[in-house]
Amino acid sequence: KEINIMMTRTRLLWHRRDLRIHDNELYHYADGGASHKIYSLFIFDPTDYSPRPTGIVSDDNISSSQSLRSVTHGPHFTRRLLDAVESLRRNLLSLGGNLIIRRGDPLQIIPSLARQLQVEEVAWSEVPGYYEFYQSERLKKSLLGLGDDNDDGGGHNYPYRCNVHTTCSLTLVHPNDLPRDQITWQRLARPKEKRKKRKSKANPDTDPPIQATTNDNGNNNSYSTAITNISPSRFVGMPTIMGDFRRVARTTSSAPIRELLDEPQPQCIARDFSRLENSSNNNENSMGEIPSLEELSQPLLDSTLPLLGCLPEELIRKLVKSANEMPRDKDVDVEEQSIRQLRNFVQNHAASANRSLCDVSNNDSSKLSIPLAVGTLSPQQVYHCVKQQQKKLDESQDENISTTANNPSDLNWLISHMEMRDFFLFDSFRHGPSAYRLHPTSQPAHKPNLPRQWLPLSSENRDQFSRWACGHTNLPLVDAGMNELLTTGYVSNRVRQNVASVLAKDLKLDWRLGAEFYQLCLEDHCVAANFGNWIYFSGVGGDPKSRHFRTVSQAARYDPDNGSYVRNWVSGLRYCDDVEAVLRPWDFREDWGVPIVPPETQLTWQDREKLEKTGRVSDLRTC
């Protein structure tokens, strides 16, 4: 009688921006083996919380080694990250496992833990970012014993070799499901465009399988890798125009949306941690303690050089203080809360949400950018939740049942936003380090580049940048947005664009200064989405359309409730009873400071004509 014996395999799962157990590919093996064991790990890398070079050089600096400094994880994002990490640990404990917490360099910690636990495989999900990409590449080579990158940076050889498994869980469409050659990209992006027939030359969607011939633990077995290729070469042919990319994304025959994965089986979660060095089984200290927000924010406060060249200390103190004072429920299941938030919004608010408003606090925004940023929710969960609700709406229409939203198409915008987010993520992978340059990419031939001059930070404009960042521009909508951002870590997309417009289009400062400042402040920060949106708005990417928002006209249109958003966030206008004075306080108050740019530039030509004829921009008179 033949007996099949399935060997138990062990995996060390390094969590990055995928802090969930539901719909997480890395908690599942391709062979479905229930006997396999998975250890979970999260690393707090000190370099993420300490000032680091941005690559932006001011006029006062001579070399790139003196580039302006900022941080990867600002206080508000760190607050959200800590909540997600604490929740993930509780969820793993409920399954009989735990989350190993470490602080330090992943390139040293991961090989060391892999050796201690004697795992056969280390797995992680790829994330965008200059440092993150090269960190991932170095770790792959080190674990597989390839190349010259086989030490920890201090001359010590890594003590362990094992298999590597990587995926990409941040995107709606998996990279392996995208077109693999330039001709297919072009055909799907512009199906009606005539082109000469050429043989399609495929780009490899994954690197050739790499074999680790020895594990350095006495085993001579070799293990094939499963590496998802997110290198720039993988995305050759990808459209530079967002609309073209989205057209491909909607072609499900070429880019199918994968089905959701269940919660991992409890027997797959490792429970024996006795191999951890200098520890006993289930010793909480050996598992590592989660640091506090105060600890992780301290390097910001201790910085001897001003961030981004000129940000005042009081602004940094205000930012850290605001993040620490935000209410936090440390016992909440963040992953389950994210799923409930998604379902509630899709079922009750998405169809009627007015997403263009300055104030979206009244269920006019899904605010799913926050759980998507830390990975407590996947884009696939958003997609399938929308599709499920649309199916219900179709069925109710057939049965003439009245519902809150009767038109399934009213929900399509949520999926469109996932497609836009995918574009920014894949565009970041495609451009690699150049995604963070002043001019990250050349313009397409059918949309020629528009001449743009960007002013570097200098002694002449430091005050302008500081005023913009501190919310002291004396432009009501901009200052309201900055006050909300510093206090809560969040502002609506409408306000983000208006604030960006003043920096990039009016002040004409290096747009990367704005992107880095948003990275410092946002609680939903994603490097690809943040820099991608700045590139898109500034007109230096694949879509060079000129976008210039006039903040007074924008406030008149998108803060329609008597200017309530501005009055809420600008204390000097809180009790103003004339809407026009909220829009144009410089024309009504002698004590109002001079705006950072000529106020007439903040009106559309239609509103300038209206102001000349009627003396007003708004049709309302009192608040």
Structural features, described:
The protein has 21 helices and nine strands. The chain is mainly alpha-helical and 623 residues long. Helix 7 packs antiparallel against helix 8 and helix 11 packs antiparallel against helix 12. It is globular, with a radius of gyration of 26 Å.
Share of residues in helices? 25-40%
Task: Give helix and strand order, one letter per element, not per position.
Answer: EEEEHEHEHEHEEHHHHHHHHHHHHHHHHH
> What is the SS-derived class?
mainly alpha
- How big a fraction of the residues is strand? 5-15%
Mean pLDDT: 87
In order across it, which strands form the biggest sheet?
Answer: 5-2-1-6-7
Strand runs, count: 9
Summarize the biggest pleated sheet: 5 strands, parallel
- Poorly predicted spans: 1-6, 61-65, 152-156, 204-224, 279-283
| Rg computed from alpha carbons, rounded to a whole number of angstroms | 26 Å
N-to-C terminal Cα separation, in Å? Answer: 86 Å
Inertia-based shape: globular
Can I get a quick summary?
Helices cover 38% and strands 6% of the residues.
Top keywords for this entry?
623 residues, mainly alpha, five-stranded parallel sheet, two-stranded antiparallel ribbon, 9 strands, globular
Task: Write the SSE topology.
Blueprint: E1 10-15, E2 37-44, E3 52-53, E4 69-70, H1 75-94, E5 99-103, H2 106-117, E6 121-125, H3 130-144, E7 163-167, H4 182-189, E8 211-212, E9 223-224, H5 242-249, H6 284-287, H7 293-302, H8 313-325, H9 334-348, H10 369-374, H11 379-398, H12 412-431, H13 462-470, H14 476-488, H15 493-506, H16 511-521, H17 527-538, H18 551-558, H19 564-569, H20 579-583, H21 605-614
Parallel strand pairs: 1-2, 1-6, 2-5, 6-7
Antiparallel strand pairs: 3-4, 8-9
Helix pairs in contact: 2-3, 5-12, 7-8, 9-11, 11-12, 12-17, 14-15, 16-17
